[in-house]
Amino acid sequence: MMAQYIEIKAAHPDCLLFYRMGDFYELFFADAEIASRTLGIVLTKRGKHLGEDIPMCGVPVERAEDYLQRLIAAGHRVAVCEQTEDPAEARKRGGKSVVQRGVIRLVTPGTITEDNLLDPARANLLVAVARRRLSDTEWAYGLAAVDISTGRFTVTEVSAAGLAAEIARLEPRELVVPDAVYDDADLAGLWRETRAAVTPLAREGLDPASAERRVKDYFGVASLDAFGQFTRSEVAAAAAALAYVERTQLGSRPPLSPPSREAAGGTLAIDAATRANLELTRTLSGERPGSLLATIDRTVTPGGGRLLAERLAGPLTEIAAIARRQEAVAFLVGDSLLHERLRQALAAAPDIARALARLTLGRGGPRDLAALRDGLAAAGALARLLAASGDLPEELAAARAALETPDPALAGRLAAALADDLPLLKRDGGFVREGYDPALDEARALQADSRRFIAALQARYAAETGCRTLRVKHNNVIGYFVEVPQATGEDFLRPPFNETFVHRQTMAGAMRFSTVELGELEARIASAGERALGIELAIFDALLGEVVAATEAVKAAAEGLAVVDVTAALAKLAADLGWVRPQVDTSLAFRIEAGRHPVVEAALKRDGAAFVANDSDLSAPEGAAAGRIALVTGPNMAGKSTFLRQNALMVVLAQMGSFVPARAAHIGLVDRLFSRVGAADDLARGRSTFMVEMIETAAILNQATARSLVILDEIGRGTATFDGLSIAWAAIEHLHEVNRCRALFATHYHELTALAERLVRLGNVTVRVTEWQGEVVFLHEVVAGAADRSYGIQVAKLAGLPPAVIARARTILDELEKSDREKPVSALIDDLPLFAASVRSAPAAPAAGPQRDGLREALDAIDPDDLTPRAALEALYRLKSLRAAED
């Protein structure tokens, strides 16, 4: 037996081997140690190998899927090894023959289909990567995304710079990477940082000719032109994905759709760091609750939940497509009665896409057929509701056509055949409705009669023997038997009872007997049961054949259900929360009136508080080919980061086709979204918090275009004050002069606010606060202007720092501010050229400017009505310092 195990394990070295032994799947050697740690089950020993004890652990077959779920979630792959012959056949061979076993399936994170192993609201993507050389130093990367649980199959090609962002958008469960790509040192960090399980793949069969042939053979076509035009890297990636699917499914072919090409640039480019900072689909801690997706999800079907997540992860960059989605949402917002009826019909729709995949792979059961029955019925009801609603917007009209694709007769036949209460497995029988098949009803009647015969026989035996506790029972070992208490059983061993009752077993406190009559009755019952189950299995296979023949129509209906669900969900969101349809066009506008952060607002509402809405205007000045930059100042805890994030989320929501949380919104199309908010280190790669900040900032400054939106928070705060101020200063100038993008730049370097006098598209805004009885009060209102202080000590006091520390900090702050007044850093603004000018003239020193009247300018800058007593005192000190300098 161990020789057989070792042989099978050698063929699947990268998998944990679930080796079937009776009612358990056993694991041995290193597999057992890994499974024991991951599953928290007992590690035992059995026998020896090469003089060492063999580690062993096991899981019950009936609970195997629960354990599989935990192993897959931990990133492991599992080879399921079953007995492939009847144990009786092995016994006939005699000697040391063992039951033949073989791997029937490889279970990996990217190829699972079972409901209890899948997240119903998340696509389960397997993504294969391939590449082609563009030049000596450049590569293009093809990606093929496959979800065998639904049949989705898409391909795209990206540059090396866009590879990480595209993988982050797809969020695969498993990555399949050719050896040469996997071993590329430049990509090692990407494979290490991804959340997906990464599987290297041998390159054999992935050359251009073999790759194209594999794809054509899978779909049975002579040319790929029918599916569109693909690059070599896209075809290679598609072939790698198909090769892995065929390897893991061991000959079974999932009903994949033909590959569809997603054009590069068709979705808003969002890098992995920005996705994490904005918490689009999960929070920074990796959880779905608290993310934007969880906040806006009003879908009622699993397919709708997956489509919503897909749209949120990849907002569009095509104006017409965005408008089509918005029109559909607006249509349902305007017809509340139709909207509610659609949602009621959708609530009855199970996950027909995944039920179909399980059925075609031979893993489905009666409940999957019932899911198709109910899903197709819901699709028909939705189609009728839409048909009765007059002229539909294009998005809903296309969904209605998809919903009408399946033949209504299929749903009718499934409804007529399937019982109301269904078993999980077809082998259990009892899933065909009574009255559907006369032969089946006859076999079932015989089974029922046999049970009555058993009851009658038990009553007769009890009367004849005088044993009222006599029972006729059944088990899988000896079949039907008569059981009596042990004291009575002794009498059954003597005449006259021993002529009728034949002793079988003696138990603790009971004895078991058989009779000729009972044996004959058992044979009739078994025959009737086998016949009934055979008829039911034949009916199942016939229904399955009809379903497989209608695969494309069912998949179309599933897509239609998802589109209607997402549209209705976004309409409900807009209607319930007062969101508005944003104007999205090709301009460089960015104007938000009374914008709100959807996640923060939802959290405040749960606590009974209100969100303070704020305006934002980053629109390009009339005639300008570049957007504005807003320099945001204000204290910690005042809401700067919330304000920054909510404006970024406006873009994501608007370009995915949703309404937005604002009174009005005009957003010029954004091609790339960058966000550098918060701080984190990367100790595993030897990167400090400041290094991570600089790497992310570098990516923004190197890639942002005039059509991008950039969100930067506290750049330069992770190093010394003058170093950080210098970096932040130069970054603002670069954004203004080189990137020329729309941007929000939050900072505590108040000296930077003076740049607004030199940079024509830079404006200052601040988050208002006030002081009341010595305490700082955050108003969360963003207004034009600049903050004159950060209120850091007041925030520290709120956090609970000891009073002695707070008092000492105030003293130190007074001394530092006094020193700064003698030569404020802001004075350098007039002495240094702009970034663009310094680049052009370097390394020459800038020419000295005309003499300035610093005292008069400082006096003109003071607004007495806007000064607190402390600020007035500080202003007076600055004026005296300037006067002394001039003297």
TrEMBL record:
Keyword flag ATP-binding: yes
SUPFAM superfamilies, A to Z: DNA repair protein MutS, domain I (SSF55271), DNA repair protein MutS, domain II (SSF53150), DNA repair protein MutS, domain III (SSF48334), P-loop containing nucleoside triphosphate hydrolases (SSF52540)
Residue intervals of the DNA mismatch repair proteins mutS family domain: 708-724
Binding site for ATP: 634-641
Keywords on record: ATP-binding, DNA damage, DNA repair, DNA-binding, Nucleotide-binding
InterPro entries reported in the protein's UniProt record: DNA_mismatch_repair_MutS, DNA_mismatch_repair_MutS-lik_N, DNA_mismatch_repair_MutS/MSH, DNA_mismatch_repair_MutS_C, DNA_mismatch_repair_MutS_clamp, DNA_mismatch_repair_MutS_core, DNA_mismatch_repair_MutS_N, DNA_mismatch_repair_MutS_sf
Recorded superkingdom: Bacteria
PROSITE patterns per UniProt: DNA_MISMATCH_REPAIR_2
Function comment: This protein is involved in the repair of mismatches in DNA. It is possible that it carries out the mismatch recognition step. This protein has a weak ATPase activity.
Annotated HAMAP family: MutS
Similarity comment: family membership: Belongs to the DNA mismatch repair MutS family.
Official protein name in the record: DNA mismatch repair protein MutS
